[in-house]
Specification:
11% helix; 1 helix; mainly beta; 104 residues; two-stranded antiparallel sheet
Amino acid sequence: MQEKRFVKNDSGFVCRNCGASVPPLSYSSRDHCRVCLCSSHVDVNPGDRQNSCGGLLVPVSAEPDPRKGFIIGYKCKKCGSAVRCRAANDDDTDLLIRLTVNNG
């Protein structure tokens, strides 16, 4: 039997980068701040919270995807890993667009 690669883990949190209170998403797992888009490097697979790094993931790019909306590219400030995740419906759209413009 194939192992599930997505674990629903939708809890709210206080962003450790900007201090914003981030509510649960309700339709998927909340994994980044909707205000500054930063995240914590805590997942191996989405929602599993199995990564021991714990570094701050900072958004470095965003790519529009016709089916998924924006895909945010991150770089971990602690280990340097590159991570990608889907933007949420309530993310700061202006910031996503600025990140998209900076891609080119």
